[in-house]
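Continuing the batch. This is chain 6 of the set; chains 1 through 5 are on the previous pages. Same settings as before, nothing changed between runs. Recording input and output for traceability.
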Amino acid sequence: QVQLVESGGGLVQTGGSLRLSCAASGSIFSIRSMGWYRQAPGKQRELVANIIGGGMPNYVDSVKGRFTISRDNANNTMYLQMNSLKPEDTAVYYCKVVAVTTYTGQYWGQGTQVIVSS
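Output for chain 6:
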């Protein structure tokens, strides 16, 4: 199976920055896609950014120009650099990986809280 460990959340003031990390471990043959999602209180979970295969990153419009997703293939680690944070970015952030082990499955991290104070 695949385990995902997230880190990097916290409390930051408006305009500040945070960097989230998501490290995948387990019997991984390959990773098909990696992505970051977030869920604010009372709202549905939404896609923030993802990378599918070797393609270009995709971002939700609200974070374009402020967030950058990247991946370290050698270490099966994904990052989300978040700059110019706004109070509306406050949410629990989850990483999701579609990985090939003995089968192809999707896996979620435990979530990390990001709070942006005004």
